[in-house]
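KilA-N domain-containing protein
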Amino acid sequence: MYSINKGFDNKFKGYYVHPHLINYVAIWVSSKYAVTVRKIMDKINETVIAEHEADKTQAIADQFHYVINIVTDTLSDRITDLNQYVRQLVPRAVPNGKERTYILIVQEVNEDEQLEDQQEDHITIRIRRINRKELRPAKIERYRRESLLFVDNLPIAMTINEKIKETLSSRQDVKI
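Structure:
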């Protein structure tokens, strides 16, 4: 590493690392990274030596490039598999037993009568998602009776827009 402190703009001052030494600096920074790189390089070296012992007519550099390509392809496949696995996971990590503790309530909002006279063909609704544990059973029953749409045991990460549209469209006096 070398330091540049004189004769340059402030944006160029600081510590710089030669490109050949970047891996060594990264090893000093993270021991986990160092162990991972060491394991990969040991596997590559073992494979190159084994292939060179099996076929001494081929240059060791060619065997090295062949092994590097195989290792790179294997690691790329593993990364692709892990990415697909992550995409298949639930959008949010939810503790066990807490997956369906929400209630969805769609209510008609009653505003001033003047606004209702002006907009007779419009309805204003309020959509709420409430944690079930924050409500008493009597309040849950009241919501069940008075709301346009009441969905109990709603999954946390569920988007329910289509269900709301279908339910409200099925009413004769509502247009969406």
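The chain has two domains: 2-88, 102-170.
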